Amino acid sequence: MKYTDKQIIELLYGIVEGIITVNNLPKDLYIAIAEYLKKGLYEGFGGNLVDFGGKDLKLLKELRENIYIFSGAKTYQQVRELTNLVAEAQTFSDYKKKAIDVYDTYNKVWAEAEYNTAKGQAQNAILWSEFEKDKKNFPYLKYSAVIDKNTSDICKPLNGVIRKVDDQLWNKYSPLNHFNCRCTLEKIDKYDDVVLTPKYKVDDITKELDKTVQNEFKMNPGKDGYIFNENHPYFTVKKEHRGLARQNFGLEIPEKD
After folding, report:
1. pLDDT at residue 2, rounded to an integer
2. 140: β partners
3. Nearest partner of 22 among 108, 69, 84, 96, judged by Cα
4. Residue 218 to residue 176: CA distance in whole angstroms
5. pTM of the full predicted structure?
6. Which residue spans within the chain are E strands per DSSP?
7. pLDDT tens-digit series, residues 138-166
8. Are 144 and 159 in contact (CB under 8 A)?
């Protein structure tokens, strides 16, 4: 993420001096977060706003807008947390040490997982668009997990499940189903010999998934039109800030890149 050491110090000074608040979020940090995650989005989708037309462009615009809204919520959350640290510190030096740890958690540790999520969900979103276009000739989908020592317990029972493109299973449990999920869906030709996974077995699997899959992953990016859904913790704001959140905290979403 392109945010310099100088900008970080300016951010911290601004918070300590009361210039940067949840009501006046730093636009440069917001844009830096959005630009970073947008790279993942475009890499996964296979292009940017100038590369697509029709329904694919509409879908990409929806995903792009979601990235900006997510970035606004992420900016809000870290400014709120960094502001809470001010009262605990005796000196700026003391504050800076704790604040840098918080900043790094948001913008290095979590940012990497968020980038991978943006890329992976974008890949699945454009794939879903293709599944919808091709479902007359490829009416079935097979869940395919990478089976190795790192395979998630979430994905193991789904591996090999075959259901129709229009099956409700894919509304909630289309990949990605967790951070750093490596699973994909494969389309199956209508002329292939297909044995659908029985509904009772799917019901047993989803009953367990309802408990184990985090709510922010219970979605289908291609159908829903977003990368990060409303259940992500960043979107949980204080009651008095909900009006701000509905307006993306006063942060503009650029029409063009």
Report:
1. 95
2. 164, 188
3. 84
4. 9
5. 0.94
6. 140-144, 162-164, 184-188
7. 999 999 999 999 899 999 999 999 999 99
8. yes
